[in-house]
């Protein structure tokens, strides 16, 4: 077999099921046969056009689990501990190529220091290698595909952690908000941790996983005093509201104390509104974990992804309860429907199953 099936995005909201060549194994890399890919808000932002590549078509999907089917001759597989049949998860800045039956990877594992840096088309230095981890037998395929989003949330929390005893607000309780909230509540000793989301069902999930109180936006405005929080973790997607006074980011900044910390996780290439007056008047510290590998090298993320895997394996992050839906890759019409309706779902994680 020399070809594979892949879901290509030709333009925003325009997809096809394409027949593409199976990629050649990199000399210092791996060829992976796809097992599971969980759908990420980043995939949806590309699908909807809030994020966009330098050129089309692209293959979406990056919360990825694959099986090693070939090893390049220049990869020191013995020292890396990689064998044919191993299951691999990766974290990289280039958010493409998962919704295909095969993909290649040039991995960096924890403890290794390698780089292949280039200037990306989205204004940061990227690495052609990706942080990777071998998945142990005790972690099932469906949970293992959540290692990647756990890595992203953990990079952000570790770079900009709350202080012990902080009053924490998680802004948005999709999967990333739930993962970040779970890590903060179980490991970082907050005084309190609450959340806000416009989705009533996701508020229920948040309270199951970590949140001591999950507010609807109107409840947060009416019931919580300004200057009530020390730390805000912003896991919201692209936001558009009619009443700017009720913009959730502006509301969160009002609820944040002077010199409080506001951590931005999600991003959009569409401009989003931040209240510069509140940032100045209150001295709010806005920060993020950088994608730029000259600031946060990929070999450091390789250590983070191993920790993320351990958090799922030990239940610090409850992967079983993050899973809502499994869609087979060969059900192309259903997959398109899921992408089209993602913003309206009451689900948490949807996994595309290639097995």
Automatic annotation (TrEMBL):
Alcohol dehydrogenase-like N-terminal domain ranges (all copies): 28-89
One term of GO molecular function: metal ion binding
InterPro entries reported in the protein's UniProt record: ADH-like_N, GroES-like_sf, NAD(P)-bd_dom_sf
Keyword presence, Mitochondrion: no
Pfam families attached to this UniProt entry: ADH_N
Cofactor(s) required, per the database record: Zn(2+)
Keywords: Metal-binding, Oxidoreductase, Zinc
Coiled coil regions, renumbered to chain: none
Highest taxon, organism lineage: Bacteria
PANTHER family: D-GULOSIDE 3-DEHYDROGENASE, NAD-DEPENDENT ALCOHOL DEHYDROGENASE
Protein's name in the database: L-iditol 2-dehydrogenase/threonine 3-dehydrogenase
Taxon lineage: Bacteria, Bacillati, Actinomycetota, Actinomycetes, Mycobacteriales
